[in-house]
Specification:
76% helix; mainly alpha; 332 residues; single chain
Length: 332
């Protein structure tokens, strides 16, 4: 084949590859932020790169002019540099996941998340209100021993206790809270394997239990130490429980209604997505445990400060999950 025919045949491919290099050839961060609007998609680049390498070998073998060979050589080298550039450090990928990918994952399953929130919040509020008019119902839900324990923990007249927990080192309690919180989150998610019924059950039980304890303590006048203790870590802890439940519901739906996929494929896909959601949930529960151990139990902090900080944290969690990752391109 003559050189003019060779160039005329492959010129559109080279131009498209050059256009892709201009879009993706900057820094890795700017490349991720910019959308590729060219003819050549990111998925087609590896195959196009191999074709250019073959064309370079042909051009050399047939003795084409240095202009053609140098152009193909440059395309090959630039393409190799972009495709095989060093991946960002792990900590950057972790930050990117938490700030952008995790919120988008949550929003992509908004239906399951809203159902989980309703299943958790409605029993909680219902029991809280019910205990204000029928206080004796607390003994139908919680044993007398447990009621007495909660009353001792949040007795405002007992100065031996520090806002709901016995004295002990903060680090020991930090470890206890991590274990307790993450075990609840994992049980909620894993309950989805029972066609979603397990996740719904865990959410309802937790909603009823929290609503009962809060309603009883509020009704007997122990609300002040209770609210001051929980307001700090509640934004992360309660939201994480709901998200774990939503991930469990997604897992259950993949079994009940797999769509056009095979049931096992749908379950594998939902499991992979749920595992990524659980990573974000674990982070939220870790933050909640830290706040619970080192902030919530501190009595010297005025109530107004604790409530203000809680309001800020609720706002940050809502903004993080609501708008995090918008306008950020997918990872290459």
């Amino acid at each position: 084949m003559r050189q003019e025919q060779f160039v005329a045949r492959h010129q559109p491919e080279w131009l498209a590859f050059e256009s892709w290099l201009q879009a993706r050839g900057g820094s890795a961060r700017s490349a991720r932020r910019q959308r590729n609007n060219g003819v050549l998609t990111d998925e087609d680049v590896p195959a196009r790169y191999r074709r250019i390498c073959q064309q370079l070998a042909l051009a050399r073998k047939r003795g084409y002019s240095p202009v053609v060979v140098d152009r193909l050589q440059a395309l090959m080298q630039q393409g190799h540099g972009v495709m095989y550039r060093t991946a960002p450090p792990r900590w950057q990928r972790a930050v990117r996941f938490l700030l952008a990918e995790f919120p988008r994952l949550v929003r992509s399953e908004a239906g399951c998340m809203w159902v989980a929130a309703a299943v958790f919040v409605v029993p909680l509020v219902l029991m809280f209100v019910l205990l204000q008019v029928r206080p004796e119902l607390v003994y139908s839900i919680v044993s007398p021993e447990q009621v007495a324990m909660y009353e001792r923990m949040y007795d405002p007249s007992d100065t031996r206790h520090a806002l709901g927990r016995e004295s002990g080192s903060d680090w020991q309690m930090f470890g206890h809270y991590i274990w307790n919180n993450i075990s609840i989150g994992l049980r909620t998610f894993a309950g989805g394997l029972l066609a979603g019924v397990g996740a719904l059950f865990v959410l309802i039980v937790n909603g009823v239990g929290i609503g009962t304890v809060f309603g009883h303590l509020q009704q007997i006048g122990y609300g002040d130490p209770l609210w001051r203790f929980v307001c700090g870590h509640a934004p992360f802890e309660l939201t994480a429980i709901v998200l774990a439940g939503g991930a469990g519901l997604r897992l259950g739906l993949s079994l009940v209604a797999p769509g056009r996929q095979r049931r096992v494929d749908a379950l594998a896909s939902a499991g992979a997505k749920g595992a990524r959601l659980c990573l974000g949930v674990a982070f939220m529960l870790l933050v909640a445990a830290f706040i619970e151990a080192f902030w919530s139990s501190t009595q010297s902090i005025p109530a107004a400060v604790k409530y203000s900080v809680s309001g800020v944290l609720w706002t940050l969690v809502a903004l993080w999950l609501g708008v995090g990752g918008r306008g950020v391109a997918d990872e290459d």
